[in-house]
Design brief:
By secondary structure, the chain is of the alpha+beta class. The chain contains four helices and nine strands.
Length: 197
């Protein structure tokens, strides 16, 4: 008993450090979110966006999804106008939220577009993520006065997994472990007067 007590006290002191190290190294296979291609153009009082994104889940995120934990994926947009003498003006920002969840009984992946409430089912995870990663004519309402001078406007966008939407017990792990940091960089795309053919 005398021999065990000092070891227990040392272990008790180092246990949080050991656990944090184990949590940070939970997965070898890392996922990646990336905006591959995007096109933006003016149409009435809106900027229309079409984009292709690569959404690859990490092992940990994939395991959570197949265990029944829904994952929320956000696509964030911002439209800017270039100004010569002073800083650039942000004309608007928007967030497109999509939830992916696995229905164990049917074996289907259900994708719900939170902004519209529309849902679709897919047989495989790859098809569900491909659907989430393909934006077709998303309309961003913005007032652009001078449409002829469109080269002074641009769109910035990124895609990320919303860690805040995870269940509370899973959030500390998601904050600390690299495999849960599924965020693309901000990408910049020019806003054209019409869609490219």
């Amino acid at each position: 008993m005398v021999f065990i007590m000092p070891l227990y006290k040392k272990f008790k002191y180092y246990m949080p450090i050991v656990l944090m190290s184990l949590l940070a190294a939970t997965s070898v296979v890392a996922g990646e979110f990336q905006v591959k291609n995007a096109q933006a153009w003016l149409a009435g009082k809106a900027v229309i966006v079409t984009a292709d994104m690569d959404l690859v889940l990490s092992e940990d995120a994939e395991a959570a999804l197949t265990s029944g934990i829904p994952l929320d994926i956000l696509v964030e947009f911002a439209v800017y106008r270039d100004r010569w003498l002073i800083w650039n003006k942000r004309l608007g920002q928007w967030t497109l939220r999509t939830q992916v969840k696995y229905h164990a009984l049917s074996g289907l992946y259900i994708v719900t577009l939170q902004n519209s409430g529309e849902s679709r089912s897919f047989a495989t995870q790859n098809r569900a993520l491909k659907y989430v990663g393909t934006l077709d004519r998303v309309s961003l309402p913005v007032a652009i006065k001078n449409k002829v001078d469109s080269n002074h406007y641009w769109l910035e966008m990124r895609v990320l997994m919303d860690v805040e939407a995870l269940p509370v017990p899973l959030r500390p792990l998601a904050y600390l472990a690299a495999p849960w940091h599924l965020n693309s960089d901000w990408t910049r795309w020019s806003v054209e007067t019409s869609p490219a053919s």
